[in-house]
Amino acid sequence: MFNFLYALFRVGDWAIYLYMIMVFIYILISWFPNAQGTAIDRFLDRWVDPFLSIFRRIIPAIGGLDLSPILAFFVLSLIKFGWSRLFLILVQIIG
């Protein structure tokens, strides 16, 4: 049972980390006008923009600078931490 939980934890942890990388690449692409509209940009736009739009409603752009990714990274870090704590709690319960 522990091996299954550990595998599930690793998959979830990896997925959160991969999503954080996707957000970072999305931010980098936004700084290069020639990269916008490419296949990778459209892919990231489809996966990352809905998540960032939640935070854009909370934090408006200041002087044309979008600060929503900062809050998004913070929330993703909290989710990653919570995922780790959940795993530790389950391991203690199962013992």
Automatic annotation (TrEMBL):
One of the Pfam families matching this protein, by short name:
CCB3_YggT
- Signal peptide start-end: none
Question: What InterPro entries would the database entry show?
Answer: CCB3/YggT (IPR003425)
Q: Which UniProt keywords apply?
A: Membrane, Transmembrane, Transmembrane helix
Does the entry feature the keyword Transmembrane helix, yes or no? yes
- Residue ranges the record marks as coiled coil: none
Q: Is Transmembrane there in the keyword field? A: yes
Query: Domain of life of the organism in this record?
Result: Bacteria
Q: Where are the transmembrane segments?
A: 14-33, 54-79
- Show the GO cellular component annotation of the record: membrane
PANTHER family registered for this protein in UniProt: PROTEIN COFACTOR ASSEMBLY OF COMPLEX C SUBUNIT B CCB3, CHLOROPLASTIC-RELATED, YLMG HOMOLOG PROTEIN 2, CHLOROPLASTIC
Q: Which family does it belong to?
A: Belongs to the YggT family.
What protein does this entry describe?
Answer: YggT family protein
Q: Which organism is it from?
A: Lacticaseibacillus rhamnosus
